[in-house]
Amino acid sequence: QVQLVESGGGLVQAGGSLRLSCAASGRTFSSYAMGWFRQAPGKERDFVATISWNGYSTYYADSVKGRFTISRDNAKNTVYLQMNSLKPEDTAVYYCNRIPPFDYWGQGTQVTVSS
User: Is 81 buried (19+), middle (13-18) or exposed (0-12) by CB count in 10 A?
Assistant: First the structure.
């Protein structure tokens, strides 16, 4: 079973930046498309961004387009999410997963953006 460990969250003021990391175990990481998702309090988990297995193709939710950048380093089995110009509505627990997602999730990392 591939393990997913997210990190890099924290408390930041509106307009600030954070860089999230997701470390995945297993030798098949480089064969997966990967994605970031987020879940705000009382809401369902939503898609944020995805990246192809080789990093050549990316896709973003409209709400984060132009502010967030997804990337990956297959040598390190890690996918990143650079978040700039953060807004209070970006406050959520952020998760990474394969695309399509495994039937399990990591613990996520909390991002809180203050106004």
Answer: buried
